[in-house]
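Q: How would the structure tokens look for this protein?
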Amino acid sequence: MSEVNQETMQETEVKLQPKVFYGEIVQNGLWKQNPGLVQLLGLCPTLAMTVSLVNGFSLGVMTAVVMAASNASVAPIRQWVPTEIRIPVFILIIAALVTIIDLSMHAYLQSLHAVLGIFIPLIVTNCIVLARVEAFAAKNPVTPSALDGFMMGFGLALVLATLGGIREIVGKGTLFSGVDLVFGPAAKSMILTIIPNYHGFLLAILPPGAFIGLASLIATRNWLAQRKAALMPSATLVAH
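A: Here is the predicted structure in token form.
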């Protein structure tokens, strides 16, 4: 009888699990719930490390890797972590993963590691990482949790890259400056001069430029979302 009851309980748990839509996870990370433009999480690295496209995208990719690994690590053990200590356990897992990435970058990408500096260890305290672990990975299986973490992080990386590219072009007149920090001295040929003989615009690469640039991206995203929502009723009427 006990075996029958256990099988029944397992079947009930399987039925109660919400159906996972992977397309929705991707769309949420890139657009609907984008951490940088909608949730406005992790503003410290967003504003501080986006003086160039390479810096912003590099930090964003590191964050995406940490988020994917953290979600994938928490999801299998979520049922065995007591509710009272789940936050410290989650932070310990995130800290271990960030330490691995930090030491790896220090060993193989020393120049980029020196540029990103303290913002790599600070990924541990980034509210985006802990928020997705708590809101999604603690309630869902491994595969969708890993995808959710990566797409949320990649959505942030795209915002950091876009903001960094805009600030770099306006502030320095170049694009891909610092790419040699990632791919070596031979990659300097990849640096593009967008505005020749440009003397630079200092405001763009200072903190006020980060606020203005991010505000412009948020306003553009909201305008596109409102425009799409306004067109939806008319599209539905045409379909009928």
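The CA atoms of residues 33 and 68 lie 16 Å apart.

Residues 41-233 form one domain.

Upvote if useful.
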